[in-house]
Amino acid sequence: MAVQKPSIPKGTRDFLPSEMVKRTYIFDTIKKVFQKYGYLPIETPAMEKLETLLGKYGDEGDKLLFKILNSGNFLKDAQIVELPEESNKLAMQISGKGLRYDLTVPFARFVVQYRNDITFPFKRYQIQPVWRADRPQKGRYQEFYQCDADVIGSKSLLNEAELLQIIDEVFGSLKIKVLIKLNNRKILAGIADYINCPDRITDITVALDKLDKIGKENVIAELAGRGIPDRSIALLQPVMEIEGSAKDKTVFLKKLLAGSEIGAEGIKETEVLFGYVESLNMSSAVELDLTLARGLNYYTGAIIEVKARDVEIGSICGGGRYDDLTGIFGMPDVSGVGISFGADRIYDVMNQLNLFPGTVITSTKILFVNFGKTEAAYCLKVLNDLRKQDISGELYPDAVKLKKQMDYANARNIKFVALAGENEIPKGKVTLKNMDSGEQQLYSADDLVKILKQ
Amino acid sequence: MAVQKPSIPKGTRDFLPSEMVKRTYIFDTIKKVFQKYGYLPIETPAMEKLETLLGKYGDEGDKLLFKILNSGNFLKDAQIVELPEESNKLAMQISGKGLRYDLTVPFARFVVQYRNDITFPFKRYQIQPVWRADRPQKGRYQEFYQCDADVIGSKSLLNEAELLQIIDEVFGSLKIKVLIKLNNRKILAGIADYINCPDRITDITVALDKLDKIGKENVIAELAGRGIPDRSIALLQPVMEIEGSAKDKTVFLKKLLAGSEIGAEGIKETEVLFGYVESLNMSSAVELDLTLARGLNYYTGAIIEVKARDVEIGSICGGGRYDDLTGIFGMPDVSGVGISFGADRIYDVMNQLNLFPGTVITSTKILFVNFGKTEAAYCLKVLNDLRKQDISGELYPDAVKLKKQMDYANARNIKFVALAGENEIPKGKVTLKNMDSGEQQLYSADDLVKILKQ
């Protein structure tokens, strides 16, 4: 076969060891907090049946699913189509599986499938890659990890409060300063009621969501363009102009939305949640942002979005409450609430702000230089004693030039190099070189353990 | 949309929390040992270009690749084929990516692609799922994890020795008693030379590999069936009958294969490797098994296979040396050696022998019962103090009947339940119930920390 120049599909990534240790640091931090709050791990397969995935993410989402070609003679049950126009029809005949698009729909499927094996309220976390056939661009990948925590089977707002605590603790541990933005889908519905456009909530929220980016004038223009009547837009203006604390805003909204039952419910929930936030003494700022909508249509209550304060980047965590996610799989009326951390953006933020602790990047503690068979055999014994004490170390496998071995130690960030030759071996000792200071000294094997244990 | 009965594709699996914690225990144990010996983590994408994967696993392997349908109008460059006979031709026109089949080929691709970024000898580990469109059956899945460690860029047999140590330490940590079987591809080539069938090494090894299972007579029949001449089979008989220690076997082989250069080389390597094994004081038995061949054609030196001693199951770890894996990607003559742990079989062995430590299965330490708003607010404060001390705990989110909350604690294996009502709150205390002993006692929040820290 001809020699291939190796490469990977567009939008996918390899991770070198230097990246892996940093990513692992992020995942481990998130995992530890999830566990501390009682969330249990699950995993689902990369491939789901297409029927599980289709229709859950809108038409756009359906197009972004990676479909897997059926195995064997995949055309045997296919009808001839007029190529190439009817490719979608053919796709469904020759593909029955797709790669998971997010962790939420597989989780809903999981909850229904194992409803008799799990205890409700079920608090689960899941950290796995997802795949989307999006056009690759800077910061957008076709394969990326999601880190989700959800509680399903409880309507209590204590769950929302707990997820906010988790957000606060995760970003506190990672030393990322964040602003947590809250809103409530019911308030948005109340606003739509109030301006007499109850059916236009999607148009209204899509436009409102852009207020930060494009400004009030342009939002008004967009609303008009979407066919919202002028009188409704006029009613909406004060909402766009509300300033102040969450308390100020809810007091104001209470009057404004007095006529909307769902609006009043949303305000009540928001008050309770902010009450918890106050009593919980969180480090992160939490703000009520009435323009926050988030794209996903399945949210029915609280909406959560987290932004880094010191880096201009999209949201690094988000979530909300959904009242009927499992309905489509035959289990109606089960309320849930969840959040999802975006590991890739968190990685970018930490890299930019230089927040990874130095200890994350370290390698093995010690490299034994290989001077030849006899010396290697001696070193291997000393090294194994160190390993028994859980000290990580290596013996260079080949008796090549000393410089090459020292270069290896440097490239690998190994702090100590041990040398043992005719001076050391008869005395049962090794010369230890500190690669940072350049200092070197003779030690017995026992002393070596003590020094490296530090 | 109609209600769907949820299920997952055949041959794939969901993992419930009780399974996840056990699997994580295995992965963490393996990872810790890899790191101790200086192996660095990498990850590669689930999807590789089909050209990277095709032709690397034989015709059988090519058929078992999961192919991903190109996005969008995937038929636009496809030629009309006579359906359904020419499905393979069409497959290559409508699919450019496949799911990774193992970790070795992606690793070879990775090494060549990043040759200027990595330091050789490169010791890497990789723990990720792989996908094979195999017919699902008991213990064989379409998605499963591999845990690989490889050293590339060094011909030293110290690498083989180190990998044996890793095997010994991993299974020692997991408390699985194993037998490590070794062989050398060069010895097998030498045997083929000796019986005057140098070109028939594959037929010979495939038949020899079955000696354990089907016995000598049947192996002889199979060899004859594969067209090996009777005189060659007669010469092979003493090889099938060799018994004794590795030393006995190499002494015997030295005479037998004296005429084969490659055979002599294989014996020499085996002697050196067994020399290391002796000096390393490993706990596992290591045996020279001349019938060991392993299916993969890319091995060129040592071959390694590990069996559990107390459970009848296939190999739970395997590997070997390959001299030119990266050649196909344009980087010839780079020798490597690696091993792969089979996490699924290890899981089965540990489950059967009841080897998972009790601590693996535990959950959060404490559940606070929810009696209503005021009590919940009080408990939340106490709970948060515990969490600050890194004690995991939960507050039941809803003020439902006590029995339901206690059932939850039981189902979740939570050892302590805390109750705080009108008796406890005014005194700043909580009643702690030990769910194992049934004992309950009044404690201050400070004492709670002490008890739960134990």
Instruction: Write down the oligomeric state.
Output: homodimer
* CATH-defined fold name of the largest domain in chain A: BirA Bifunctional Protein, domain 2
Q: Specify the structural class of chain A.
A: alpha+beta
The number of E-state strands of chain A comes to 16
Specify the CATH architecture of the largest domain in chain A: 2-Layer Sandwich
Mean pLDDT across every amino acid position of chain A: 92
Estimate nothing, just give the exact number of structural domains of chain A. Answer: 2
Give the strand order of the largest sheet of chain A, numbering strands 1, 2, ... along the chain: 1-5-6-11-10-9-7-8
Could you describe the 3D structure shown?
The structure is a homodimer of 454-residue chains. The first copy, chain A, has 454 residues and is α+β, with helices and mostly antiparallel strands. Chain A folds into two domains: 280 residues, Bira Bifunctional Protein, Domain 2 (BirA Bifunctional Protein, domain 2, 2-Layer Sandwich), CATH 3.30.930.10; 92 residues, Anticodon-binding domain (Rossmann fold, 3-Layer(aba) Sandwich). Chain A is 41% helix and 19% strand. Chain A has an eight-stranded mixed β-sheet with strand order 1-5-6-11-10-9-7-8. A five-stranded mixed β-sheet of chain A has the order 13-12-14-15-16, with helices on one face. In chain A, helix 7 runs antiparallel to helix 12 and helix 8 runs antiparallel to helix 9. Chain A is globular and about 95 Å long.
